[in-house]
Amino acid sequence: MPSVPDVRLSPTSYVVLGMIALRGPSTPYDLKRAVGHSVGYFWHFPHAQLYSEPERLTDAGLLTCESETSGRRRKTYSITPEGRAALEAWIAEPSDSHFQIRDPAELKLFFNEVGNPDDVTRLAGQQIARHEERIALYEGMVERFGPDPADNPRLITLELGLEVEYATLRFWRALAAGDLAGLRKRRDLLDGPDVPDGTDTRPDQA
Amino acid sequence: MPSVPDVRLSPTSYVVLGMIALRGPSTPYDLKRAVGHSVGYFWHFPHAQLYSEPERLTDAGLLTCESETSGRRRKTYSITPEGRAALEAWIAEPSDSHFQIRDPAELKLFFNEVGNPDDVTRLAGQQIARHEERIALYEGMVERFGPDPADNPRLITLELGLEVEYATLRFWRALAAGDLAGLRKRRDLLDGPDVPDGTDTRPDQA
DNA sequence: GGACGCACCGTCCCGCTCGGACGGTCCGAG
DNA sequence: CTCGGACCGTCCGAGCGGGACGGTGCGTCC
């Protein structure tokens, strides 16, 4: 196996690698569309990177590139055994970091003290609408593929997306209704009132 | 009111503005710590930006800067009326974008087909532990401040964080147990089995 | 059937982001 | 006084982000 120049593989790298592994040889534009209606829903990747990243990965020996000569300039990338190995290694290795939720609305909520109170109400209304829309979208997808995740393993991720969307929706509805206590109560109903496990990680100062 | 050179205000900008609005005059290091045990939990901001961003904002007239002369070089930033106005305007204005969940684990799950099946099991186990830890941390914070969000409006955001953490935890537990159907069932129990509202946004191709 | 219009596709650019390395500062212990 | 370690600030280089721009192919209309 030829030695691979060490490159930093970012999440973007793995998305490219993964998409090509799942779909077979692809052009950047293929990737753009594939990402756009799958992982793109919860993690946005700007399209320009889907052009530059495969180049990097080709240099690193994880992809090979075939340029079309006639007509529209177009490059088709395929995954190499090294690429597949790198992808599998990443999947198998323990995850390094906790998730991030990048939600401007959440920031606005946090800083709501400086605005005026009914900003929060408006914000909540907006978020409710937004998340309802998302849920309808996701539910539609589930419906079109059948509810059984065995049919399409990629749909498992959709289920996670739905769970999070519903949770967020519940939160904003409770906030709009001024009933956060009810939210907590319903949560306990599902999970039991006790904190799960509780390693004694001490929360730090706030 | 002096005219303000137009600058792009990013979420980072508003975090800086917001933190200074809430806390009063602060040094970048103050901001770093304040962010670190609040918004930093769900949206990571690299510390270097908390030094450079206030500079930008000062140029834009949204902050003022006072340098300490003696001892350690240190700059204390305060918010100007223009800064506060910009912040309030942002809070009031409708949110532009949907949240993003940047979770490497979610990506790994999506690409699980290419790895081997028990990678998923290991992943689930890891995530369960990770989220339980987080929940314990957050619950600890809630406890220290009392459960009544009226006591501290900043804690409302914590409640959202908890809701999302619990949802995610439920998902990974269900996945580990091989019972995603049960997950869906419990969700219906909370929200009713019907898709909320459903604007007829058609899901696109998959 | 040439000219036009528009969707499709690829590239470039520039400012910001990111994380880590590095260096200075303060304070307590030895 | 000196040393060490926590505290604090700056710098740098690679990567990200998103929008502008330009080319390509195809259908349409005169």
TrEMBL record, chains A, B:
Record protein name field: PadR family transcriptional regulator
Domain Transcription regulator PadR N-terminal: 16-88
Database matches in PANTHER family: NEGATIVE TRANSCRIPTION REGULATOR PADR, TRANSCRIPTIONAL REGULATOR YQJI
InterPro entries in alphabetical order: Tscrpt_reg_PadR_C, Tscrpt_reg_PadR_N, WH-like_DNA-bd_sf, WH_DNA-bd_sf
Domain Transcription regulator PadR C-terminal: 101-171
Organism of provenance: Pseudonocardia benzenivorans
